[in-house]
Design goal:
The protein is an alpha+beta fold. It has one domain: Oxidoreductase, molybdopterin-binding domain (Sulfite Oxidase, Chain A, domain 2, Alpha-Beta Complex), CATH 3.90.420.10. About 25% of the residues lie in helices and about 25% in strands. The chain has a five-stranded mixed β-sheet. Strands 3, 4, 7, 8 and 9 form a five-stranded antiparallel β-sheet that branches. Pfam families: Oxidored_molyb.
Length: about 250
Amino acid sequence: MILTRRKLIGGIAAAGGLLSGCDKLDQSPGFKKILFKAEDAHRFLQRSLSNRAALAHEYRPDQMSPVFRTNGTNNPGTPEYQAHADSRFANWRLQVDGLVRRPLALSLAQIRSMPTRTQITRHDCVEGWSSIGKWHGVPLKLVLDQAGLRSDARYVVFHCADLFGGQPYYESVDLIDAFHPQTILAWGMNNQLLSVGHGAPIRLRVERQLGYKQAKYVMRVEAVDDLRHVRGGKGGFWEDAVDYEWYAGI
């Protein structure tokens, strides 16, 4: 039997009751040492033995969870975001820039008019819970193709509207995950537009990674050549704040 990262972390949580939630992460040095030693081992095995181009399992509609919890922030709560929400994101624009030949500013209507992928997948949170939901969105590849990635681009960074400790949330993936067919900028969930709690108007779904990689409230997509120049240099908010692993494959 293959020991998945989710089962490994879930076992640690069950043994010690240590994981309190994606937005209330334990700061214990002992916990972090145990967790990230395990993650180092998993990352080595994952990258050595798995095919990162393989598809995440997709489920039937009757297997969807009756309740899908929200992870992280429930509402960014800033005046800017509230103004967008009040107008149903009519004036919101997704900025696509960085190492691209054609910077974009896409409205929600433009994004929804692009080819849509719908997938029913399982969300695995680092705190140990899982839910199955249906996601509707545009493949990230199509957006990046429209912007025209430059040859020196290596990573894609997602800048978000929600704040943690006064800092905007952010995450990143490499081009393998950016061009994976199940990596989408989701604008809908369970046959409806995204709710505020689930990341309206746009959230990332990168289905073969854990929940903290699924950035919500995405405002800007930036192509970069190196993560060392992005915030704390490790590629994401939790990676910089509490040494979470950048590669969260499951």
